[in-house]
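Batch 3, record 17
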Amino acid sequence: MMRKENQSKKLFEEALGLFPGGVNSPVRAFKSVGGTPVFMKEGDGCKVTDEDGNTYIDFCCSWGPLIHGHNRSEVTQAIVNTASKGASFGTPTSEENVLGKLILDNHRYIDKIRFVSSGTEATMSALRLARGYTGRDKIIKFDGCYHGHSDGLLVKAGSGLATFGTSSSAGVPQAYAGETIVLPLNDEAALKAAFENYKDEIAAVIIEPIPANNGLLLQDKVFLNALRSICTDAGTLLIFDEVISGFRVGFEGAAGYYDIDPDIITFGKIIGGGMPVGAYGAKAQIMASVSPDGDVYQAGTLSGNPVAMAAGAAQLKICLEDGFYDDMATKTMRFVDGINAFCEARGYDFKMFSVGSVFWLSFSDKSHVRKASEIQGEGMNKYNILFHYLLNNGVYMGPSGYEVGFVSSAHTEADLELAKEKICQGLEKAFTA
Ligand SMILES: Cc1ncc(COP(=O)(O)O)c(C=O)c1O
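Prediction for the assembled complex:
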């Protein structure tokens, strides 16, 4: 099949004059894989169609929010019906109560929730809450976790023996970065050492309990349990950033999956049914510090927007149906196992990791990859070959080998079988190039 791309090229040319790099979020620019970004026009179920009329089985799924795929009728209807009554009021609305109650009634790890408009806003607000609640300033984050683009979180490990981070973006004052300690994932010794050095100063540890922004770096449960107890001993709040894992690996996200009780949880993506929503939740005692009850200020003109709340509620209701998450995990596992078996038979240094309905294509001979430093960067060239092969053969993956893929409830066994075939063909190309 020869993929047409005249329209995408034309639109990208125009966009280059309008937006930095032609995009409104950097990964969309195809910098990592090369070529012209594909301009999508519509989506239905697990398929997306671009401006040139090419159709793809979609594993990007808007980077995770679309757990039921595109244009799921219940979600679309909720958006249309609610919007037809007015897009925003700046007052409380019943839609906020509906989504808030739906979540809190079915999530054992939080008592109260505050809706915001993005994952970045959720993590930024959660950190402020932790700092306000504990009266401490420093935070710990992990190399390989992404928590959005607020100043204190765009920080990478300092060089040499420096414990404190340095900013990973221009424009972040060193004073902010200096409050963030960056540690390797899955490393209890490093964690203990940081707590020994700064025991009474650390307000919070923030972690993606299922790190899914730099490969899928599945953690040992032993490490996550140790993290929980070290935080408890030190009076430090443990923040699970579940912007990806929340409502994805189960309704109770990674907290439920591992049965670990964090102090604060952040959400985004799935919670808004494709509309811009984020949230943070915690035990009532901690949430009592949030304004107007408490003195940690946080606000938003469009927070709890009724259209977004209705979309989120429609989407999450479906997730609560019996067996929903088991079915998602089973079909994803079958898909992943099939590809792994093919690669094993061929002797390729490749493994597909997955949890629930999230997967990652790892070009490495390792049976576990738990730390960012364990990712073999050379494999990214192979990913790029695979990516373009798939693009030309009707499968859309995220345009970077560090990104995970998402299976939705709209992906049928037949879609997954077809995608598996194409991925195996693409891998053959990548490994024989
Ligand atoms: C774990 C995690 N936290 C926070 C964010 C930031 O969310 P947003 O892009 O909605 O600001 C992301 C985005 O990918 C994420 O994956």
